[in-house]
């Protein structure tokens, strides 16, 4: 629901108060988390999880749009560094938290822990964010047919990609979901050309900065999530780590990713954005290549930690560079739409990264046996290194060569 609803959430953000949309999304997500934790039936749990996705689809583009319209230049880069750090930390640290919960508590704790955090997150914007802002036109201009086609089409796409991880790309379930997605997204494209106020205006695809930034974001998110997925299997199946130990093994990656985002925000004032993005992707390629050379009896400190650290720094650099590139020059009244567009790429990338790297790893070896997992781990990370190198070339060619200034928003052409 989250991946499919981000475009809708972004458009609603542009039509209503960003502060109101953020608070609504946080409230829905927090309440749904509590309901999920106390769910007594599968139906209640599924419904609550769908509500969580809806809340995330509202609050994510609203939060990013607030950053982009409140700050300028170097301040905006710092805000995006924090955004990238939190997002990357969530991906990498999720394994650690999952390991702790798996070891010491029940699955309900995964949802209960969201409630106190969510309450604090709801209170903070009420105190820190001003109520003032430009007048909004309201939901009367919302393209409902386009919204339905986009949400269901993207939802089917994400479902199909996720199903491919477990059932394979040629399974009837995967092919059926992808076929339905193709039909719905084709219908969405037709609708968008006919309505007066489209959910995603056709000219959006001609905004080079947004399209190229989203494309690179899709790729780098896939690399990070896919790396965490492969690493988890390798740590537990080949090296015999417990879920908690596997989670702790990713802690340095999570911490160094924060360093990478801070470094990226600093470099953007001195180095063109495409150089920061391309350089970060080359680092990611080097880190994943290092990981691909790990033997079946790998030592963590010598064979795995260096690759994880280099990968984390590289991904942190890319997150900041592509975020500010994608949003550069976007008018304030379309900041929500652009944010939803960018974060849709992020969500699809996460699903695609796991599916693609899992398929490569499975072809390389049986992931359920120690020896097979080691072989598959090597194949998967070697493929990831090649993808990262290709993305570096794409970033260098497609992302404009401009710098962030300290006085104004970054405008790219």
Could you explain how this protein is built, in words?
Among the domains are: 233 residues, Growth Hormone, Chain: A; 56 residues. The protein is built from 15 helices and no strands. The longest helix is centred in the first third of the chain and has 32 residues. By secondary structure, it is mainly α.
Give the distance, in angstroms, between the N- and C-terminal Cα atoms. Answer: 34 Å
Broad structural category? mainly alpha
Can you summarize the main beta sheet? none
Oligomer: single chain
CATH superfamily of one domain: MFS general substrate transporter like domains
Number of H- or I-type helical stretches: 15
| Global mean pLDDT | 86
Write down the CATH class of one domain.
Mainly Alpha
- What's the Cα radius of gyration? 21 Å
Offer a concise description of the structure.
The protein is an all-alpha fold and 413 residues long.
Protein topology:
Elements lengths: L1 H14 L2 H20 L4 H29 L2 H32 L3 H5 L1 H15 L15 H24 L4 H21 L15 H31 L4 H7 L1 H17 L5 H20 L7 H28 L7 H30 L5 H29 L15
Helix pairs in contact: 1-3, 1-7, 1-14, 2-3, 2-6, 3-4, 3-14, 4-9, 4-10, 4-11, 4-13, 7-8, 7-14, 9-10, 9-13, 9-14, 9-15, 11-13, 12-13, 12-15, 14-15
Features:
about 425 residues; mainly alpha; Growth Hormone, Chain: A; 15 helices; about 0% strand; globular; disordered C terminus
